[in-house]
Design brief:
alpha+beta, 4 helices, five-stranded mixed β-sheet
Length: 136
């Protein structure tokens, strides 16, 4: 994993490009799981390494808790991608993405909403983990 600003910016650009390609082919209005499977296919076609729908380990005060906490994508071991198909990206979705970034110690994250007219302008939000802001 390379965590340079240049690398993460390019990876972010590539993942958003993959999401735009999926959206261009499907448009808005489908279920989140449809977009997730199609985005996984698009990432594979582009040679981008990722894991998806993985149950997240969770420790609280030294004890491992069995929770059904799952993130959508973890790209190249450094970029959290959370996808939605909703009317609006609320602060709750922002907080969810930031929490996954914190738990995974990921330097960057993207929240993508497929239920929009244009993903680039209104359907994505990029976050930088506070821990890494000085390094990036």
């Amino acid at each position: 994993m390379e965590n340079s600003k240049k690398y993460l910016d390019k990876l972010t650009f590539d993942v958003i490009g993959a999401a735009i390609e999926v959206h261009k082919n499907l448009g808005p209005g489908l279920l989140e799981k449809v977009y997730q499977k199609c985005l996984a296919r698009e990432l594979n076609l582009r040679g981008i390494n990722f894991i998806e729908q993985v149950k997240m380990p969770f420790n609280y005060k030294g004890e491992s808790l069995d929770l059904d906490l799952m993130f959508d994508f973890y790209i190249e071991n450094c970029l959290v991608v959370e996808i939605k198909a909703v009317n609006e990206l609320t602060h709750l979705y922002h907080a969810q993405t930031l929490a996954y970034m914190k738990l995974l110690e990921a330097p960057k994250g993207i929240l993508i909403n497929f239920n929009v007219t244009n993903i680039f302008h209104e359907g994505q939000k990029t976050f930088v983990n506070e821990i890494y802001k000085n390094l990036l």
